[in-house]
Design a protein that fits this description.
This is SET1B methyltransferase. It is found in: Nucleus. InterPro entries: COMPASS_Set1_N-SET, Post-SET_dom, Set1-like, SET_dom, SET_dom_sf, SET_SETD1A/B. Its main location: nucleus. With 234 residues, the protein is of the alpha+beta class. It has a domain of 90 residues: Beta-clip-like. 25% of the residues lie in helices and 21% in strands. The strands form three sheets. Strands 1-2-10-7 form a four-stranded mixed β-sheet, with no helix packed on it. A hairpin with a 5-residue loop joins strand 1 and strand 2. The longest helix has 20 residues. The chain starts with 32 loop residues before the first helix and ends in a 25-residue tail after the last strand. 14% of the residues are buried.
Length: 234
């Protein structure tokens, strides 16, 4: 026996009505081009038409208010330092660096790619500690036989200790004629030390900056070898 398949009806919106209640159980059937165009045109018109409550009226006061907002926004972004943007870019795409033996002192940090001037090179990473803890650690490092401690002062109260917990930035040597400089920036209410390039840095060129140690009676000899070398780090 053969049963006649009931003719599938169309709904008021032009779409085919499924007899079984589920499109998957009825298999594939081709949609008429007229029905498809009607459906696409209706959806396109609905998408292009903005809601009534979001339509902007050409009212002079409204236009003036929006113009003022744009002016304030442009002045704000223009006056803000681009350090935060550069820092985010540095975190996203780190510079290619390597540490190896230096002609200045022991180990040094070298560029593996050209670095343009005024670029963030690397962040000085370590533990944020107070001055009291820094004094205790410095004495302990001397007792342990650690000749060099990698402490970088952020401000009057905070010091970054990278002696046992840091990154490649601690290998950067001092130079009286450096190609980089250190700068303290604030990111999400936290102060960070970032090394910037003063000039263009070539591949395999050693990265250096001025330590700017305070003047003391016991002098630390400088081995940078630059023409204007001061002779001492402090």
């Amino acid at each position: 026996t053969s049963f006649s398949t009931p003719k599938k009806k169309k709904r008021d919106d032009g779409m085919r009505e499924h007899v079984t209640g589920c499109a998957r159980s009825e298999g594939y059937y081709k949609i008429d081009k007229k029905d498809k165009l009607k459906y696409l045109n209706n959806n396109r018109a609905f998408a292009e038409e903005p809601p009534a409550d979001t339509q902007v009226r050409n009212h002079p006061a409204e236009c003036q208010r929006r113009s003022e907002q744009r002016r304030l926004l442009s002045s704000f972004t223009g006056s803000c330092d681009s350090d935060l943007l550069k820092f985010n870019q540095l975190k996203f795409r780190k510079k290619k660096l390597k540490f190896c033996k230096s002609h200045i002192h022991d180990w040094g940090l070298f560029a593996m790619e050209p670095i343009a001037a005024d670029e963030m090179v690397i962040e000085y990473v370590g533990q944020n500690i107070r001055q009291v803890i820094a004094d205790m650690r410095e004495k302990r490092y001397e007792d342990e036989g650690i000749g060099s401690s990698y402490m970088f002062r952020v401000d009057h109260d905070t010091i970054i200790d990278a002696t046992k917990c840091g990154n490649f930035a601690r290998f950067i040597n001092h130079s009286c004629n450096p190609n980089c400089y250190a700068k303290v920036i604030t990111v999400e209410s936290q102060k960070k030390i970032v090394i910037y390039s003063k000039q263009h840095i070539n591949v395999n060129e050693e990265i250096t900056y001025d330590y700017k140690f305070p003047i003391e009676d016991v002098k630390i000899p400088c081995l940078c070898g630059s023409e204007n070398c001061r002779g001492t780090l402090n």
